Amino acid sequence: MISITMEFPEDLLSRMKLSPAEFGRELRLAAAAHWYGQGRISQERAAQVAGLSRRQFLAELARMKAGAFVVDFEDLKREVDLG
Length: 83
Fold this sequence. Notes:
Elements (H helix, E strand, L loop, with lengths): L11 H5 L3 H18 L5 H8 L3 H10 L9 H10 L1
């Protein structure tokens, strides 16, 4: 794993009522959900980025009211055309 250091306003975590560990988990989940929603990473990879199992990741997507399944419409069209 790589480690990345980021800077945020000093009062952000206290305003959000989060510990640094909680903030890090939320940030990882938000990034994973975003990249998964864009189709840039698979569901399995997104779960890994978020530090969750696939089942936990899907549950978090549901809690966030985010799409659990990404559909590539070109792939879908090819499948439909194949019958």
